[in-house]
Amino acid sequence: MSTYDPEQTGNYYPLGDSHPEMVQLIDSDRYFTRSMGGLLPEQPDRVLARVHDVVDIACGPGGWVLSMAEAFPDMQVTGLDISQGMIDYARVLARTSQLENVHFQVGNAIDPLPWPDASFDLVNARQIEGAIPTASWSPLLIEMARITKPGGIIRLTGNEWGITNSPAYETFMEQTLQGLQKFGLNHAPDTRSFGITTMLSRYLRDVGCVNVQERLSFLDFSAGAPQHQDGYSLNMIAAELSEAFRLAAGITTQAAYNELKRRLSLEMAEDSFRGIIYTMTAWGQKPDLQ
Questions:
Q1: Is residue 29 helix, strand or coil?
Q2: Domains plus CATH for the chain?
Q3: How much is the pTM?
Q4: 135 CB contacts (<8 Å, ≥6 apart)?
């Protein structure tokens, strides 16, 4: 079993860095893009017409980047991630899809970003709340603003992960929040929520963005809902991959967690199961020089 030790690796991602996680992240990108209504559903055509250079920060195996490059062949789309394995996998997918307008680079999002000032029309960060330490968000947003062109867009998306009627799922999420709090990854003052959805627009305003707006969507993974199987698969794989994170945080034991995973699998498969994940997208414009 892999270990979770961000002090050694600098990689805070609770689900680890493995081939199963690469596949899980690609699937997760697809599920959330569907529930959000598309890749950039909040951006009107007149705005997209001015977007030529795009970057996705902490892109993982590049699911959103690859989809953007395919959907917008006239755009140049770049992805940055700390994991060499994730970037190698993304590059293979790009070659397989014969996408020539996509680029990937290894880099840590909590370090200065490796591009000159005013490099991109759209700077995106999507569902990175479990991977970037809370204390690093303000410096990261300063860097994102630096590499955004005047008049360009900074776009942030985060989730409030799951409100359900499953006792096992609620315990699962309580443990997740306890672990995030222990490792400095939670945005709420306690362990009742992730807290990220309330903070996105604040982060944008703090770096001087104007015309800040928000759009709420949700993924219904209740039994009988179109995305029930998506949500079931997403959560069961996450339960397996986050085991090392939970044990490292000292919030459970191996035996107790094995039993929790068993109950989670059963309860999420019941016809009575209800669950929703809320997603907030916030975006703002870097002031134009004029």
A1: helix
A2: 6-285 (3.40.50.150)
A3: 0.93
A4: 184
